[in-house]
Amino acid sequence: MSKKNQHVVPHPKGWAVRPANSQRPSSIHRTQAEAIARGRELARAQGTELLIHGKNGQIRERDSHGNDPHPPEG
Known about the structure:
Layout (H helix, E strand, L loop, with lengths): L5 E6 L2 E6 L7 E3 L2 H15 L2 E5 L5 E6 L10
Parallel strand pairs: 1-4
Antiparallel strand pairs: 1-2, 2-3, 4-5
């Protein structure tokens, strides 16, 4: 399994989970919530980052599941 960040992006059939630098989605879902859940599973398993895009395609949220070089203190 490759270690690529996962993107949740708009898709003509709903929402898709797509690995970074790939045009082909790894899965397609009816709702954004379903796509986020699947993307989060993949990101956790791979130790990568989940990037959630809005309907306009811009990144609206990030969730890191890998090695964070600057973890928060405390």
